Every structure is written in C-alpha cells, then in structure tokens.
From TrEMBL:
GO biological process: DNA integration
PROSITE patterns named among the record's database cross-references: RECOMBINASES_1, RECOMBINASES_2, RECOMBINASES_3
Protein name (record): Site-specific DNA recombinase
GO molecular function: DNA binding; DNA strand exchange activity
InterPro entries in alphabetical order: Homeodomain-like_sf (IPR009057), Recombinase_CS (IPR006118), Resolv_N (IPR006119), Resolvase-like_N_sf (IPR036162), SSR_resolvase (IPR050639)
Family: Belongs to the site-specific recombinase resolvase family.
Entry keyword set: DNA integration, DNA invertase, DNA recombination, DNA-binding
Active-site residue numbers: S10
Domain of life: Bacteria
Length: 186
C-alpha cells in the first residue's frame, strides 16, 4: 500500500516545486509529473503512467483537485475508476481522503453537487432554446448557401465552370455547394 503522487503544471514556465514538496511531505513513494500540459488536455502522459502504475490498496495523492481533473465530471469519473480498482484518492489542499468514510462522503457530496450543476445548466440551456424558438429564432449556424447563391452557381456552371470554380466565385466551399445543389434538386 503506497501513496503515489501526481503533479501537473499548465505551462513550461511554471514550477512543480510547491506540489512536489507537498507530495513528498505527505509520504508519496513515487511521483508522476506532467509539465506544460493544460488540465483540459485529454492526453497527459504523466497521469496515464500514474494510473497504470497504481495497484489495489494504493492511494493516488494530488496537491489540489484541479491538478487531476479537466472538469468536475472528469475528476469524479477518474476517482470512481480508482475506487472501482480498490485505489484510494487523496487531495492535500482540500483535505479529501477517500480511504476514510468521511472522505468518501465529502467526495460523493462533490459528485452530487457536480451533477446538480450539470442539470441546472441543461435546464437553463433548454429553457433558453425554447424561449428563442417561441420568438421565432432558430439555433445553429446560419445557412451559407442562399437561393441566390445556388442560382448564381448554376449560371456559372452552365457557362462552363466546374463546381469548384463556381463555389470559389460565390465564396462558399465546394462541399457546401454540392450539398445545396443536391438538396435543391430534390
């Protein structure tokens, strides 16, 4: 049963010293690092190596929650995967330790709050879309190929231009013109 540390800084100019000192003071027997990698990145070689290294009974320790997860959802998913493998999780700054009943409770409360936040965002988004639709607004990208552009493209192609040349003249992509011509033919 070992404490395995993970430390990450987002830019090459940042220093891991504070995190490394805290992880060593906590008793981490091995520390994996990612330098110059944003937390939003899915590819983090140090984290991947740490997760592969962990064995049942080990505890992954981080200096702060945001060092591990890209988002609350990702953090909860990662800790749930660790828990499923029999691996604990510890965050030093927030004083969370899932190897204790209290730590598990606190983390599950975080999870519930995260789910609540996602549900509220979804509700507000749907309400906003419904309100916009009631006012006659439609979401999504504006249509790039208008009826006038289709007519102009047909004229250009009738005069001998190919689809690529016609699309360039009316300033739309070749694929958008192909799709519009196909849809217009139906």
């Amino acid at each position: 049963m070992s404490l395995i540390g993970y430390a990450r800084v987002s830019t090459a100019e940042q220093d891991l010293a504070l995190q490394l000192d805290a992880l060593n003071a906590a008793g981490a027997s091995r520390i994996f690092e990612d330098r110059g990698i944003s937390g939003a990145k899915t590819e983090r070689p140090g984290l991947t190596a740490a997760l592969s290294f962990l064995r049942e009974g080990d505890t992954m320790v981080v200096w702060k929650l945001d060092r591990l997860g890209r988002s609350m959802t990702h953090l909860l998913q990662t800790v749930a995967e660790l828990e499923g493998r029999g691996v604990g999780f510890k965050s030093l700054t927030e004083n969370i330790d899932t190897t204790t009943p209290t730590g598990r409770l606190v983390f599950h409360i975080f999870g519930a709050l995260g789910q609540f936040e996602r549900d509220l965002i979804r509700e507000r988004t749907n309400a906003g879309l419904a309100a916009a639709a009631a006012r006659g607004r439609k979401g999504g990208r504006p249509i790039a190929v208008t009826t006038d552009k289709i007519l102009r493209a047909r004229e250009l192609m009738a005069s001998g231009l190919n689809v690529r040349e016609a699309a360039a003249r009316i300033k739309i992509s070749k694929s958008a013109l192909y799709a519009a011509l196909k849809k217009d033919a139906m």
